Amino acid sequence: MKKPLLIIATVAALILGTYFADKATRVPRKVVSAQSTGLPDNPAVGTPAPAVTLKDINDKDITLADLKGKVVLINFWATWCAPCLEEIPWLIDLQQKYSAKGFTVLGVAMDEEGKSVVAPWVAKKRFDVDGQKLPMSYPIVIGSEAAAEKFGGLFGYPTSILISRDGKQIKRITGIISKEEISKEIESQL
To answer: In this predicted model, what pLDDT tens digit does every residue of 90-137 receive, in sequence order?
Structure first.
């Protein structure tokens, strides 16, 4: 009788330990904008976006210079990142809602395995967007630590950076985005 109780107690302790470890290591959402007093915390906000060239999942080069003239939401994410997966339907919706007005999301996949994992995942995965099962409808590129460093490094996933039409970084969000807040910021740039 003692052995099953010991097993149950051990499993319960592991579950609680995992819960508290996860809670202690989650990256809190941090928003920095050019208009906020947080500018010293992220000097990149308000400066030109760095020159970066990344390959999409079809091996085509994509540069930020190619997207100049558009409002761009760069979203650093990974296939294994739960908060990233939670916000992807919102990003698909934003892409649909604002693309005709000169907006695009640029998804930067940061999986260590790169294209071999990301390309099949993107091809198969569908997300619930207003009751429809939709694929990621915006460009996906394969990221790297070197590319992330050009943006000042990443302190967690997801990390999103809003770029103005003239190529300046105007907002940085570490952690899951607020769809309402980012929608307002996008609309103010269109």
So the answer is: 999 999 999 999 999 999 999 999 989 999 999 999 999 989 999 999
Q: For residue 79, what are the CA distances in angstroms to 21, 23, 84, 119, 150? A: 21, 20, 8, 10, 22
d(CA 95, CA 160): 14
Q: What are phi and psi of 123, to 5 degrees?
A: -65, -35
Per the rule left: phi > 0, alpha: psi between -120 and 50, beta: everything else, 186 is alpha
For the entire predicted model, the pTM comes to 0.75
Cis check for the bond before 135: say yes or no (omega within 30 of 0).
no
Tokens matching residue 37: 């007093």
**CA separation (Å) from 130 to 45, 92, 134?**
33, 10, 10
> What digits encode the pLDDT tens for the residues 19-34?
666 665 554 444 444 4
Count of other CB atoms within 10 angstroms of residue 30: 15
Domains and CATH numbers, the chain: 27-189 (3.40.30.10)
Q: How far apart are CA 89 and CA 130, in angstroms?
A: 9
